[in-house]
Design a protein that fits this description.
Layout: H1 3-16, E1 28-33, E2 36-42, H2 51-59, E3 67-72, H3 84-91, E4 95-100, H4 110-117, E5 121-124, H5 128-134, H6 136-144, E6 148-155, E7 160-162, H7 174-185, E8 189-193, H8 194-200, E9 217-221, H9 232-235, E10 242-247, H10 252-260, E11 264-268, H11 277-286, E12 291-296, H12 298-306, E13 312-317, E14 327-328, E15 344-352, E16 355-362
Parallel strand pairs: 3-4, 4-5, 6-12, 6-13, 8-9, 8-12, 9-10, 10-11
Antiparallel strand pairs: 1-2, 1-3, 7-14, 13-16, 15-16
Length: 364
């Protein structure tokens, strides 16, 4: 195997950790000695221990003189764990191949400098684009102060999410819903508006047995604290983290009742409609959240699109049509000219049972 194949193996490991190691990035590490893999690891659930010391521990004495392939530049600062650069140096590796630099200002090249100062050969930039895609949530939090935002839609061909009477379960089939649960598993948090809670009483968990070790944080944007105390999200808040982001000055009695039920409350400024979406995302980033999946509803989708805060779209569409009197995927948000539309580029289109999943990314 060559460098590219070993780095692809490290990237595959990193992808497995998405959604489970926030606030840290999911990093893959593969240690190779004389063409043989002697150690491999991904960042542990909860963000520690990091991938490098785990892979080195697996390699043991074989790490001496080996090559380590790492998807993101090793950290060089003391946090809850010692620097990964120190672990690599102490293990006596001869060479470190790094896909992408860590944009955390505490690192950002300093880890590479420390390795080179210790006499280790360092090569960087191998499959950097793929590595940055895996670390996109962490990079967004570091550079933009907000998580990576994926808007998930489940609609008919004409972009409708419910009939005129409000019936919405289920537009897509069983296979699509399983894929949607896996999508939840790759994100740190699932976000909905209070309208979705009132209409559907969702659970918002990844219900694929054995798939995810760290539960998603369930987040509700609810400016006036209308979330019922008997909602599934509230009743299960002691087992699965539930955060409600509300407007400053919301009812204190309602707030206390929700807190007593185990819900965490976060006050944010008001926006055009409800809480300000940019402020809500900044507050999530401040808590360490790097990747969010927005699942509803139409008003929240419109608020995020209006503010140009949607990075990716996962569109599950069923081969059916509801018509113009049904509920749209996004409420009106003031587009008067074609040039003002948020635009996206299709990255994949995958059949899922009788439905289709189209994944899109923000246009450059």
């Amino acid at each position: 195997m060559d460098d590219i194949e070993h780095m692809r193996a490290a990237l595959s490991l990193a992808r497995r950790g998405l959604g489970m190691c926030w606030p840290n990035p999911s990093v893959g590490c593969v240690v190779v000695k004389n063409g043989r893999v002697v150690g491999r690891a991904v960042t542990a659930p909860g963000g520690r221990p990091h991938a490098e010391p785990q892979a080195l521990a697996m390699a043991g004495a074989e790490a001496f003189g080996a090559t380590a392939y790492v998807t993101l530049e090793p950290c060089c600062h003391h946090g809850r764990t010692p620097p990964c650069t120190d672990a690599l140096i102490a293990a006596g590796v001869a060479r470190v191949v790094i896909a992408a630099r860590d944009c955390d200002p505490r690192v950002n090249g300093a880890g590479i400098d420390r390795l080179r100062a210790a006499g280790i050969v360092v090569e960087e930039g191998l499959l950097a684009g793929e590595a940055e895609d895996v670390a996109a949530g962490f990079i967004s939090r570091m550079r933009r102060g907000r998580p990576l935002v994926t808007l998930k839609l489940a609609t008919t061909l004409d972009g409708r999410i419910a009939t005129r009477s409000g019936e919405s379960q289920w537009i897509t089939g069983t296979a699509a819903r399983r894929v949607a649960h896996a999508l939840r598993g790759r994100h740190d948090a699932v976000v909905v508006g209070v309208g979705t809670v009132l209409a559907d009483d969702p659970e918002l968990t990844c219900r694929l047995p054995g798939y995810k070790q760290v539960p998603d944080v369930r987040v509700v944007l609810d400016s006036h604290l209308r979330t019922p105390l008997l909602a599934r999200l509230v009743v299960t808040a002691q087992q699965t983290p539930t955060w409600i982001m509300h407007a400053v000055g919301a009812d204190a009695i309602r707030a206390e009742a929700l807190r007593n039920a185990g819900v965490s409350l976060v006050a944010v400024p008001r926006g055009v409609v409800g809480v300000d979406p940019a402020e809500a995302l900044a507050a999530l980033a401040a808590q360490g959240i790097t990747r969010i999946l927005v699942e509803g509803g139409a008003q929240l989708a419109a608020s995020l699109l209006r503010a140009d805060l949607v990075d990716r779209i996962a569109w599950f569409h069923a081969p059916a049509v509801m018509g113009g009197d049904a509920w749209p995927a996004a409420q009106a948000f003031g587009v008067s000219h074609l040039a003002d539309m948020p635009r996206f580029v299709r990255s994949t289109a995958t059949p899922v049972g009788s439905d289709m999943l189209t994944e899109l990314r923000r246009a450059a």
